[in-house]
Amino acid sequence: MPTQSKHALLSASGAERWINCPPSARMEENFPDQESVYAAEGTLFHELCEIKVRRLLYPDRDPEVLKLAEEAVREHELYSAEMEEHATEFADWIKNRYEGYLIFDQACLLIDEKIKFDKYVPDGFGTCDYAVVTSSGTIEVLDLKYGKGVKVLAKNNAQLRLYALGIATKFNVAVAQFAEVLTTVYQPRLGHVETEKLHPVYLDGWGVSIRGVAEQAHAGQGERRTGDWCRWCRAKGACTHRAEDAMSNIGVGALNPGVMDDQELGSCLHIAENLIHWARDVRDEAENRAFSGKKIPGWKVVEGRSNRVIADKDKVYRILLDTIPEREKFIKPASLQGITHLEKHIGPKKLEGLIGQYVTKPAGKATLVPETDPRPALGSPEQTFRGVDLESASEPRN
Ligand code: SF4
């Protein structure tokens, strides 16, 4: 029997990309799957959460195995007090969520569950972080996200929908026969927990509706389309379609002679931002090729600038101590680390308890962002009244 590769061609996590740009699935096969430091950090967080959840819910099962696994996580260079705190909170949170179901129903909690959704997506399989299935027919799938750069929404989330379809398949029950489906994102570093409630018939229809595009993606066919999903595509720095799309914008069109008006400046800024992202991806791709020994015509690899470093700090320290009487000439004054560092090493909650009253958050520097950004515009009523407790400020009602 052929062994299943670790990652599906049409993975649930890549669904937004391959649904919008079906040929990207096969194109990605030509590029190495390099794990970023953020992905590695996320994997470590998932492991720590799983250990804590298992220990909390099933304290008698494999305590020694869990202890060893936990020690390994804590020795990892990406482990932090912040991660510990978020994992502890998550374990409590999911225990409460699960026990909430148990009040009314029989229910099972699936952890890190291997699932298949190949009824809808050719060779579709994956691993669902957590899922609860109840005897009255509720499925809730829960996905952990440790990143804090992009808020992940539960609404219209193709990854979570595929997980829910996979969980139904696992129970050999057509999804439409369930009573309700909930898909939840838990993103602790943004304090973001969101659930989408789906009618099972709708979810089944959605699964059927993507089958055609999934077949195209599996066959490497369909139309390439650029969009936000390109940032997760392994081909992003080499894709000719994205390059054409980026460069087609360079011929901005006729501008009025002289100075750009506000309308023209706004349009050019959209294009410039897009070009900056694309340019960075093209450079990464070219560097990957060049550093792996390929010749990129018109370019060469040289030694970059470097700074002098003290090779043996202890020895140098002792020499200076013996010969230079004024210590301030060679020792930096001790100073406090920044809040991000303190949170990472002490934990956000503990830090808040210790020094919260001394931490203030000044108004942020004015920043120009596209109108689609979710933050309210400076000076708008939403921004002015954000955080104001209008209810407690109002006169008591008789
Ligand atoms: S970079 Fe964008 S357009 Fe190109 S294959 Fe990837 S997802 Fe499709």
Brief summary:
Among the domains are: 15-219, Lambda Exonuclease, Chain A (Alpha-Beta Complex), CATH 3.90.320; 236-253 and 264-291, no CATH class.
Structural class: alpha+beta
Beta-strand percentage? Answer: 5-15%
Return the average pLDDT rounded to an integer: 91
Helix tally equals 15
Can you describe what's shown?
With 398 residues, the chain is of the alpha+beta class. Among the domains are: 205 residues, Alpha-Beta Complex (Lambda Exonuclease, Chain A), CATH 3.90.320; 46 residues, no CATH class. 44% of the residues lie in helices and 11% in strands. The chain contains 15 helices and 5 strands. The chain has a 5-stranded mixed beta sheet with strand order 1-2-3-4-5. Strand 4 and strand 5 form a beta hairpin. Helix 3 crosses helix 5. The radius of gyration is 26 Å and the shape is globular. It starts with 14 loop residues before the first helix and ends in a 5-residue tail after the last helix. Bound molecules: iron/sulfur cluster. Iron/sulfur cluster binds next to helix 2 and helix 9.
SSE blueprint and pairings:
Blueprint: H1 15-20, H2 24-28, H3 37-57, H4 63-75, H5 81-104, E1 107-116, E2 125-134, E3 138-144, H6 158-170, E4 180-187, E5 192-198, H7 200-209, H8 211-219, H9 240-248, H10 262-291, H11 313-323, H12 339-346, H13 348-355, H14 381-384, H15 390-393
Parallel strand pairs: 3-4
Antiparallel strand pairs: 1-2, 2-3, 4-5
Helix pairs in contact: 3-4, 3-5, 9-10, 12-13
The chain binds iron/sulfur cluster (SF4).
